[in-house]
Design brief:
Layout: E1 2-7, H1 9-17, E2 23-25, H2 29-41, E3 45-51, H3 52-57, H4 59-64, E4 68-72, H5 85-94
Parallel strand pairs: 1-2, 1-3, 3-4
Length: about 100
């Protein structure tokens, strides 16, 4: 299975330098949504990587695809969230809050 990437210019360049081919450089949320949908329809793509900022803008599209989508920080660093989804999942699964 291949990895697809949807990101800003810097993210796209980084993943291309790492050897990935299925990399979409996007400039707005419409382009990002289109790229995510295209990657999700491909049989050879098993994982889609995007930035947290793009993920926040097109959350409804990401939630509608059946592929695994991983959100990573961009060059500006991680988004500080009041609600951490990973922390919530761990609390539900294990019954213990992590710090």
């Amino acid at each position: 299975m291949k990895i697809g990437v949807v990101g800003d210019r810097d993210t796209a360049i980084g993943f291309r330098l790492a050897g990935l081919v299925d990399v979409y450089e996007v400039n707005n949320k419409e382009e990002a949504a289109k790229a995510i949908k295209e990657l999700a329809e491909r049989e050879d793509i098993g994982l889609i990587i995007t930035t947290e900022r793009i993920g926040e803008e097109i959350r409804d599209v990401i939630n509608s695809v059946e592929k695994v989508v991983v959100e990573i920080p961009d060059k500006n660093g991680p988004i500080v969230r009041e609600h951490d989804p990973i922390r919530t999942l761990v609390r539900k699964a294990v019954g213990v809050d992590m710090k």
